[in-house]
Q: What sequence folds into this?
């Protein structure tokens, strides 16, 4: 009997050992599963960057608001301010899922994350493996918010507010969201081709800039354009807005590293380097061309440099950033002066700064990008990879064409339904009173 019990015990011990050892042997031959872990430093940086990028939209409101005539200041500010609420709701309901959700043939995200279903506090390893998924989502929301607000500079002082609401919702859904997925979404077809867009030269500036050009061409000129003076009514407000944009841009570009380490530092430095180079270059060009350097020119030059470095900020070093900024100052200055020659009324130079700057920066990333700066990127032409220049140029031109054509279609549909432009009398009186029933100034 005792022998039988001992045998049973031996068998049980053998089985227990097998149960413990066999999985260990199997796992020893497999790569251990990577469990995303939240890094509090990275999370703090992303949340701070989110706040910085959010501040850019009120900064844009001031930048644009100071540039228009006083009778349109509130209507212009309202374009940016309402975008915060409008696009944020769209982003939470469907926009984030369309932009970053599970891929559908490289073209769009599906709606499985609609209403933020499945988007929680656990990191998503595809996008930001060290911060909560919700943190990445809300950070990207601020990019979606400011992009249609940038377009409003092209049609300032003459679009119906109701038309702007419809345009913003439709444009964000069928232009911004798909392009964001193409370039940044897991499975996006341009991402698969290897396009480099660190913080939105294509996704933000090319889309908004070329849509702004479509707006200026379709809606037509302001009454009295090139026939009567239309100077900025409050340059100090514009300069304050430029300062807030510059401040927020560090979150825009350096935050796109999605961590608080070396890459964020490099993007921070290249962002500032390009901005100051563009400011100086713009002033020199203006001084030579017009005889006097202006505060308005300095502010616009800084924004041009910031927009232009955006796609390259995390792929290039400080000296290429200096060259990119200098090129931005010269080319964007030329573009702004060319609009009078071509006769279109891009009221606040949305195309000349963002369309031209975003395109230039995307192409120059194809020249100066280096894996020594960012191992997740690629080398540009000057580092032995001419193919990257072709990828950059082709991608930004394709997105520019898509944005321009689709925006024209949207404007046409709105024009025949809601109506796009205010009446001549309303334009003369000003949009503050006619569209909003209020005035920015009591005296």
A:
């Amino acid at each position: 009997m005792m022998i039988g019990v001992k045998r049973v015990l031996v068998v049980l011990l053998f089985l227990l050992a097998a149960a413990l050892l066999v999985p260990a042997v199997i796992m020893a031959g497999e790569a251990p599963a990577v469990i995303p872990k939240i890094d509090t430093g990275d999370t703090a940086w992303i949340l701070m960057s989110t706040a910085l990028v959010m501040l850019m939209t009120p900064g844009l409101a001031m930048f644009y608001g100071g540039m228009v005539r006083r009778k349109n200041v509130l209507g212009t500010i309202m374009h940016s301010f309402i975008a915060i609420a409008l696009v944020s709701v769209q982003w939470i309901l469907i926009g984030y899922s369309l932009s970053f959700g599970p891929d559908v043939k490289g073209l769009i995200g599906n709606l499985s994350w609609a209403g933020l279903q499945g988007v929680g506090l656990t990191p998503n390893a595809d996008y930001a493996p060290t911060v909560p998924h919700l943190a990445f989502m809300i950070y990207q929301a601020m990019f979606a918010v400011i992009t249609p607000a940038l377009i409003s500079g092209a049609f300032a002082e003459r679009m119906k507010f109701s038309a702007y609401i419809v345009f913003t919702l439709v444009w964000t859904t069928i232009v911004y969201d798909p392009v964001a997925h193409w370039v940044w979404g897991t499975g996006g077809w341009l991402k698969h081709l290897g396009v480099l867009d660190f913080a939105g030269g294509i996704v933000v500036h090319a889309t908004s800039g070329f849509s702004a050009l479509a707006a200026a061409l379709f809606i037509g000129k302001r009454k009295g354009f090139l026939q009567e003076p239309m100077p900025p009514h409050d340059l100090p407000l514009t300069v304050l807005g430029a300062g807030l944009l510059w401040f927020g841009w560090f979150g825009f570009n350096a935050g796109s590293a999605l961590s608080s380490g070396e890459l964020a530092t490099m993007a921070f430095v290249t962002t500032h380097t390009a901005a100051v180079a563009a400011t100086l270059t713009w002033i020199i060009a203006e001084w030579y061309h017009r005889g006097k350097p202006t505060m308005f020119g300095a502010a616009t030059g800084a924004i041009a440099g910031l927009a232009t470095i955006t796609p390259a900020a995390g792929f290039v070093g400080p000296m290429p950033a200096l060259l990119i900024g200098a090129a931005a100052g010269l080319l964007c200055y030329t573009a702004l002066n060319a609009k009078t020659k071509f006769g279109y009324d891009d009221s606040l130079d949305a195309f000349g700064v963002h369309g031209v700057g975003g395109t230039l920066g995307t192409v120059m990333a194809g020249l100066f990008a280096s894996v020594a700066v960012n191992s997740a990127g690629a080398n540009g032409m000057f580092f032995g990879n001419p193919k990257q220049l072709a990828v950059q140029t082709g991608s930004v031109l394709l997105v520019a064409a898509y944005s321009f054509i689709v925006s024209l279609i949207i404007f046409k549909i709105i024009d025949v339904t809601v109506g796009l432009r205010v009446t001549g009398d309303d334009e003369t009186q000003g949009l503050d009173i006619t569209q909003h029933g209020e005035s920015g100034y009591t005296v």
